[in-house]
Amino acid sequence: MGKLSGKIAVVTGASRGIGRAIAIRLAMEGAHIVLSARDQRALEQAVRQITEAGGQAACLALDLRIPDAPARLAEFSRQTFGQIDIVVNNAGATKRGEFEELTEEDWADGYALKFFGAVRLTRAAWPHLKATAGSLINIGGTGGRTPEAQFTIGGSVNAALISFTKAMAAAGIRDGVQVNVINPGTIRTDRYQKRLAAFAGERGLDTGTAEREFVREHHVMRIGEPEDIAALVAFVASPEGRFLHGAMVDMDGGATKTF
Q: Which of 123, 138, 230 has its CA nearest to residue 179?
């Protein structure tokens, strides 16, 4: 039996990248998974991967920027598996770029999914997490602690998510819900591959050389893998990680240099 056998986990942004890796890892640990994102086909592929490996999973394609979508996801999870033990707020990518070129729409979109989507799903799932003494894990980002000029939206959104996590951790002590936030660094996702391709094109390098140069310039150990973050999520949600509460964990290969 896995460390999360019998638990019900809701994972957003679960169609690809970090979210998909988290869903698969939690399923490997015995949890039943509800996956959500906007891409129905990708979600179904992830569900099939989990079920073919012997796990149990269901999916609901939603745009969590729509105000009532998070509540629909929580209700779907309850109806499908009867309860909610773990919520992983992972959905949301924000636009990079020069501040003067970022529009009002870019800023609104950045907050709509990653921040307000997480807030609303937390609100909808909180009564269930209280009933199960569950775990809330928010996936933020190192930009929330180390702002940079090209990441004004993402840094601001992640900082807000970190603050929200700390506040909910205080509520979690009262209500018996574990609450933590994980800040990934640069992870090998589709978004990173596009960024690397642009970096390689600017320097006239092949992608392998470009990645080594990227790692050197950013002073990190290596580029992270989605499975790195998934393994940490599985630990935090497990009985072994239960004493971890109100924590902000930078899993970034050494990118964050400050205290």
A: 138
